[in-house]
Design a protein that fits this description.
Blueprint (H helix, E strand, L loop, with lengths): L2 H28 L13 E8 L8 E2 L5 E4 L6 E4 L4 H4 L7 E4 L10 E7 L7 E10 L6 E7 L7 E2 L14 E5 L23 E8 L18 E7 L9 E13 L23 E3 L10 E6 L4 E6 L3 E3 L6 E8 L4 E8 L1
Antiparallel strand pairs: 1-13, 2-3, 3-6, 4-5, 5-13, 6-12, 7-11, 7-13, 8-9, 8-12, 10-11, 14-17, 15-16, 15-18, 18-19
Length: 337
């Protein structure tokens, strides 16, 4: 083999090895459970509501489609002012929700309050101010979500969490506990001392075209959230967890899905569906129309672009959608079950 050819082959192999090494290093970094690329994505504010827990707060904010704070059945959580020493240092509000307003948290606590998202929306952002003082890795507070109106619950750092890559969306967190901040039960949570007031956020983000595989569907329009506090059987005299100003934002993400020119279809969900179909936010969506047809070509629906289409009155089977503004056309299948 000529010397020049051997040199070229050597250089080519060397480049391939470097690319492979770079790829595996990147893959290792991306799959690290506690890596966080971005955190919460902020879009264009649409509306928001804040649970201030002041006496004037009804805890019912359905006017802006946010939800209701449900404290029924709570044995530990209380709304009001407090004289607990750690809670009162640097307090920015007279009223908040906390693990009792006067006494240290009890033994074997396992109590929560729920925020029920009423109408649902993609890309909901939750934020809150809080302080916590617990025995580290023994007691703590966690944030959980339910996709089936409270039947089952999952930690925001598990299940649909996608802090590791943010590649397609999922549950994203900012200034949160990690998966290794666990208590004796193995659950990730805020544990130890917050060293003052903290500002934390989490988001149910579906801004990009995504595809979920497996049996766990992470995309539903209605999500319930609960704040749960857990303690063990060892006595403590610590304050617990106090939470204030829980804000729910409904942002719009024109920029995230503005250019679908590279796609022939849109990320509609859930699919298969029982009838209620969600379409993504489109740039200049008022110029688009949606057409739904059967597999035989019979048109059953045509309407101006809407981010939610109800096909529950149609029989089960395969349907086709077409979204067009006269210049751009997106098509795809919808399965009703």
């Amino acid at each position: 083999m000529p010397a020049l050819t051997r040199s070229i082959n050597y250089i080519h192999k060397s480049m391939l090895m470097k690319k492979a090494l770079l790829f595996f290093c990147l893959l290792f970094w991306m799959t690290n459970a506690d890596a966080q690329f971005h955190g919460v994505y902020d879009g264009v504010p649409n509306d928001s509501c804040t649970f201030s827990f002041e006496p004037s707060d009804s805890l019912n904010h359905t006017s802006c489609a946010s939800g209701i704070t449900d404290t029924s059945g709570c044995n530990l959580w209380r709304i009001g002012s407090t004289s607990k020493p750690y809670f009162t240092i640097g307090s920015s509000s007279k009223f908040a929700i906390m693990t009792d307003t006067s006494s240290p948290y009890p033994l074997k606590a396992n109590d929560y309050f729920i925020i029920k998202n009423i109408k649902g929306n993609d890309n909901i952002i939750y934020s809150f101010y809080h302080k916590y003082q617990t025995r580290k890795n023994k007691d703590g507070g966690m944030v959980e979500y339910s996709l089936d109106t409270g039947k089952t619950w999952e930690n925001v750092k598990l299940g649909c969490n996608n802090d590791s890559t943010n590649a397609w969306g999922g549950i994203l967190t900012s200034n949160f506990y990690t998966r290794t901040d666990t208590i004796a039960t193995g659950e990730p949570c805020f544990t130890g001392s917050s060293n003052g007031w903290q500002y934390s956020r989490f988001q149910f983000f579906w801004g990009f075209p995504i595809k979920i595989t497996g049996t766990f569907n992470c995309i539903v329009p209605i999500v319930w959230v609960r704040f749960r506090f857990v303690s063990d059987s060892i006595p403590d005299t610590l304050d617990g967890w106090i939470i204030d100003s829980i804000k729910i934002e409904h942002d719009r993400y024109y920029g995230s899905v503005k250019d679908f020119e590279v796609l022939h279809s849109l990320p509609v969900y859930p699919n298969p569906s029982t009838g209620l179909i969600n379409f993504p936010v489109l740039f200049d969506e008022k110029s688009y129309k949606i057409s739904i047809t059967t597999i035989t070509g019979l048109q059953i629906l045509e309407l101006p672009y809407n981010e939610q289409v109800d096909l529950s009155s149609q029989p089960n089977g395969m349907y086709f959608y077409k979204v067009s503004n006269g210049q751009k056309i997106y098509t795809g299948k919808i399965q009703l079950e």
